[in-house]
């Protein structure tokens, strides 16, 4: 029988790509999402892209009356992982072999302005999920951590043993959740946990049917770039050109979102194949550093669009250079990123060109 996985935040950017890969690998998937930063259209398109495997996907958005909210013009029932009663109902109806936990808020700047919202959503949400998992005997968790836990690293590349230092409330939620996971595994060895530290996910599924479509003003580089490319914004602000890097702009380890999604499949397989798994941490990156200007050049080449740049000051809290050591994931998960920045920019543009207004655009051609 197909293994069943609960995916929190499965309507979101990384979640939707991972759900598709899970379905294609033969998993049965239940998604829970409050659609705070995503669209139900993403889930529908994932089901279509999965073809015959689409029947193995269920989506819970509407669960309990206590989630009743009014959000802009929309009024409805929303599934929220902080709602224990709602989660209990999901676990009561299905037995899960594992949970992949993406649900959370991720905007660094907003987390500085509204820390309590971040602590409540990310930390209370995770604790609630862990409690319900434990109560139902499901103790295998894959958690979305982030390279942000390395802060401004002194030594590069970042290995899983590099010192940890969060520089903002968002980063602190990731660090605290990692610590919570280590503690629950320490207290109860039945817990098997994968803490996956993502570097910079970009790109989109090559079909151009799913991609990143943040609500409101994007925070990350590539969603902003794609909005410039389709004419939704006039320019891109480059945050700092006086760093000690090859061209003065910040350097990051960009990873194609499909490679990242495959990293989750590799982590799940490890649960089922290796009885010695405890609470493990893995970097998911490519190991290569790319500057903002290099990324802009690659995107302009892939899209044929000029991205007008405005040099701006450094963004507070930004690290200068961040890239991963990928040896551990390669060795222990038998996983390695396949795509380079050319494919990342090609697929980012394919998604943007077909969906200039994200999931609110008219349906793209297949
Ligand atoms: P996303 O915002 O596209 O996806 C997160 C999803 O979680 C959204 O669909 C949102 O509606 C949902 N959600 C948020 N709070 C919820 C709640 N309380 N209950 C139910 N659903 C909720 O973000 P993403 O880029 O796909 O990121 C997924 C995870 O990976 C996040 O935890 C994020 O912090 C982490 N991460 C992302 C990046 C990145 O650059 N995208 C890097 C490192 C780590
Ligand atoms: N960046 C930029 N302009 C923007 C957004 C980001 O120059 O509008 C830079 C940022 O300073 C960093 C890189 O792009 O060097 C990646 O930023 P992002 O926010 O995507 O990821 P993070 O900084 O969280 O790794």
From TrEMBL:
Limits of the NAD(P)-binding domain: 6-347
Source domain of life: Eukaryota
Keywords: Carbohydrate metabolism, Isomerase, NAD
GO CC annotations, alphabetized: cytosol
Reactions catalysed according to its record: UDP-alpha-D-glucose = UDP-alpha-D-galactose
InterPro entries in UniProt: NAD(P)-bd_dom (IPR016040), NAD(P)-bd_dom_sf (IPR036291), UDP_G4E (IPR005886)
EC number: 5.1.3.-
UniProt cofactor(s): NAD(+)
Function of the molecule: Catalyzes the interconversion between UDP-glucose and UDP-galactose.
NCBIfam families in alphabetical order: galE, PRK10675.1
Protein family (similarity comment): Belongs to the NAD(P)-dependent epimerase/dehydratase family.
Protein name: UDP-glucose 4-epimerase
Organism of this sequence: Musa balbisiana
Taxonomic lineage of the native organism: Eukaryota, Viridiplantae, Streptophyta, Embryophyta, Tracheophyta
């Amino acid at each position: 029988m197909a293994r069943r996985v609960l995916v929190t935040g499965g309507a979101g950017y990384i979640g939707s790509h991972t759900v598709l890969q899970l379905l294609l690998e033969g998993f049965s998937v239940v998604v829970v999402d409050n659609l705070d930063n995503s669209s139900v259209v993403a889930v529908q398109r994932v089901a279509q892209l999965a073809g015959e495997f689409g029947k193995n996907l269920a989506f819970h958005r509407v669960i309990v009356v206590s989630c009743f909210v009014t959000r802009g013009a929309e009024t409805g029932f929303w599934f929220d992982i902080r709602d224990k009663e709602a989660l209990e109902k999901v676990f009561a109806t299905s037995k899960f072999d594992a949970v992949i936990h993406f649900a959370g808020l991720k905007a660094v700047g907003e987390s500085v302005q509204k820390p309590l919202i971040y602590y409540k959503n990310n930390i209370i949400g995770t604790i609630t999920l862990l409690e319900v998992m434990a109560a139902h005997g499901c103790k295998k968790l894959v958690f979305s951590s982030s390279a942000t836990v390395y802060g401004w690293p002194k030594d590069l590349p970042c290995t899983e043993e590099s010192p940890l230092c969060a520089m903002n409330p968002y980063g602190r939620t990731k660090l605290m959740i990692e610590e919570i996971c280590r503690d629950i595994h320490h207290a109860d060895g039945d817990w098997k946990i994968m803490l996956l530290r993502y570097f910079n996910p970009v790109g989109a599924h090559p079909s151009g049917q799913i991609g990143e479509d943040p609500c409101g003003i994007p925070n990350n580089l590539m969603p902003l770039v794609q909005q410039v490319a389709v004419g939704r914004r006039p320019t891109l602000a480059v945050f700092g050109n006086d760093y000690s890097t090859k061209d003065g702009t910040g350097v990051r380890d960009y990873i194609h979102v499909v490679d990242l999604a495959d990293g989750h499949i590799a982590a799940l397989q490890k649960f089922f194949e290796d009885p010695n798994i405890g609470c493990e941490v893995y970097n998911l990156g490519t190991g290569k550093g790319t500057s903002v200007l290099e990324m802009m050049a690659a995107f302009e080449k892939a899209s044929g669009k000029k991205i007008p740049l405005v040099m701006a000051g450094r963004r507070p809290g930004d690290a200068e250079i961040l890239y991963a050591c990928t040896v551990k994931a390669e060795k222990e998960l038998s996983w390695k990123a396949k795509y380079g920045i050319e494919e990342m920019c090609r697929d980012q543009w394919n998604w943007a060109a077909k969906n200039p207004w994200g999931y609110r655009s008219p349906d793209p051609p297949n």
